């Protein structure tokens, strides 16, 4: 006999015993009230009828209850398994979504999603500024220290860029050693300051190329363009930022170059500040 069968018989026997006692009590009280006599046949009927009728019924009822309990436990276990599978599926979806959106090495937005952000900002007519950033002489690092160290250098540059910009700004890796930054709602002076801040953060970053711990200088060249200045399309914005980047490269690297309109405006604002300071002194 299995443990479940033992439980069923035990519960049925207990219930039947209670029924027998109850039947006897009712029978005795009723005869006492009516003043009737109790013979041997009455005793047997009062005891046997609950046993013969009640025991099978009780066994059936408790057997069904046991099945329901077993089914409930299986259902609860299945529900737990389903919940775990759902959680694993959710985590897998999040991993896939992250991998599809972000560059796996640097953790920055990948090229596709970064350009989508730039395109959306351009279509919305927002006053954002696009920066294109390229690591200077990066091939030398790969050739001298190997590609593993080159990857570490890219991660160092990516972290420096992320630290130098604001929370609302978008940062992406465009490919190879080239990065992009979308400065959200940035005034001209703010854009220049942030670009210089990026350049300075990278140049001050600590990167060791060899095991002896000797530091290796990392620098970047940056070209920028204001989205609103090129309503024709995103291609013109990218071309302008690229042109400024190559101008920075030709001018000696480790520098920032913006479109002419932006530079002139910043210089004009700087001259106005100087005149205000001089007038205050006088």
Describe the structure.
- The chain is an alpha+beta fold and 282 residues long.
- The chain folds into two domains: 3-99; 111-281, Reverse transcriptase/Diguanylate cyclase domain (Alpha-Beta Plaits, 2-Layer Sandwich).
- 67% of the residues lie in helices and 10% in strands.
- It is built from eight helices and five strands.
- It has helices at 3-34, 40-101, 111-123, 138-145, 147-164, 188-203, 234-250, 260-281; strands at residues 129-135, 170-175, 178-183, 220-226, 256-258.
- Strands 2-3-1-4-5 form a five-stranded mixed sheet, sandwiched between helices.
- Helix 4 packs antiparallel against helix 5 (147-164) and helix 5 runs antiparallel to helix 6.
- The longest helix is centred in the first third of the chain and has 62 residues, at 40-101.
- The radius of gyration is 41 Å and the shape is rod-shaped.
- It starts with a helix and ends with a helix.
Short description:
The chain crosses the membrane at residues 12-34, 46-63. The protein folds into two domains: 3-99; 111-281, Alpha-Beta Plaits. It contains eight helices and five strands.
């Amino acid at each position: 006999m299995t443990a479940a069968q033992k439980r069923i018989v035990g519960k049925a026997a207990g219930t039947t015993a209670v029924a027998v006692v109850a039947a006897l009590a009712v029978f005795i009280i009723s005869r006492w009230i009516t003043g009737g006599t109790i013979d041997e046949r009455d005793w047997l009927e009062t005891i046997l009828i609950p046993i013969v009728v009640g025991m099978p019924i009780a066994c059936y009822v408790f057997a069904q209850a046991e099945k329901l309990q077993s089914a409930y436990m299986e259902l609860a276990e299945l529900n737990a398994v389903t919940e775990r599978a759902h959680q694993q599926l959710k985590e897998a979806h999040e991993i896939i979504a992250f991998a599809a959106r972000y560059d796996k090495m640097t953790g920055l937005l990948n090229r596709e999603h970064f350009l989508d952000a730039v395109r959306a900002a351009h279509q919305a007519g927002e006053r954002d500024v696009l920066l294109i950033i390229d690591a200077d002489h990066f091939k030398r690092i790969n050739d001298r220290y190997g590609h593993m160290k080159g990857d570490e250098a890219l991660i160092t540059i990516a972290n420096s860029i992320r630290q130098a910009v604001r929370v609302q700004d978008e940062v992406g890796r465009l490919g190879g050693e080239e990065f992009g930054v979308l400065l959200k709602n940035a005034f001209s002076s703010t854009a220049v300051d942030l670009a210089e801040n990026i350049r300075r953060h990278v140049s001050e970053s600590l990167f060791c190329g060899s095991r002896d711990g000797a530091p290796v200088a990392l620098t970047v060249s940056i070209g920028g363009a204001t989205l609103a200045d090129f309503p024709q399309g995103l291609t013109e914005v990218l071309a302008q930022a690229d042109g400024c980047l190559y101008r920075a490269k030709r001018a000696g690297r480790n520098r920032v170059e913006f479109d002419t309109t932006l530079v002139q405006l910043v210089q004009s604002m700087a001259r106005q500040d100087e005149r205000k300071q001089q007038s205050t002194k006088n």
